[in-house]
Amino acid sequence: MNRMVTILGAGGYIGGELARHLRQQAWDVHTPARVDYGWLSGRTDLGHVVYAIGLTADFRSRPFDTVVAHVDLLRQTLQSARYQSLTVLSSTRVYGAQADTREDAAVAVQVQQPGDLYNLSKLMGESLCLHAAAVGLSAQAPVRVLRLSNVVGLRPDRDLFIDQLIDEGLRTGRVVLHSALDSSKDYIHISDVLAAITTLLDTPHGGVFNIAGGTAVTHHEVTQALTQHFGWPIEVAPNAARQALPGIDIQRARQAFGFAPQPFGSYFAPHLNHYTQTKTSTP
Fold this sequence. Notes:
alpha/beta; Rossmann fold; UDP-galactose 4-epimerase, domain 1; six-stranded parallel sheet; three-stranded mixed sheet; 9 helices; 11 strands; 19% strand; globular
């Protein structure tokens, strides 16, 4: 098997973690600058390409950059690069709050909603790479899209809800929730994401896969763990709304390559211990 992988977006959290992980697994890892398409087009074989370029928390204030990251740079990759396989990292955010989160479920977007720019751009990128492969505009195979849920890990940013809570607790000594305790999200640990990507690089599988925990985790579960670990009191703001997002369906990944993510309760306490050992107590 070709043990070469080219990671586009290795300067980001997931791309950087993947580069380190694959090097530890004896892969030949290349991490070119994301706009270096002269380098990409000049190579006859990039091995396996992982496209990890994307915007998350700041997409509302950077709409043009969001479309460039999720669509235009991906288009250039499809047109310029020569690869053995292409893995594009997307997001389960495209499902919104809908109950059906299977990969082939129809998803709804509202162009009037500014928050849906993220979903529209992600879905356009997904459709572009899958359609290009299907009609022969992208000669390489397989092409796969991985929709990731909320990734828990030692992130340098504070994009994740959990990291924002920890940051607030470290600064103020308490956590104030602006959504109800029975609100929920789906989480997955970074180690399970890295394992899933690495496994798929060794397979011929293509198409769309949800890479998620598979279970809705309530804010109560998260804040209870924070109180047990840090001792912070938890407050809920008046009129906090319930924002319950479902657990993501992961049956396709389970059946295709034995995907078996850790349950939230088994990794979150060790994650907080690791956080305390490696992060400073100031923001």
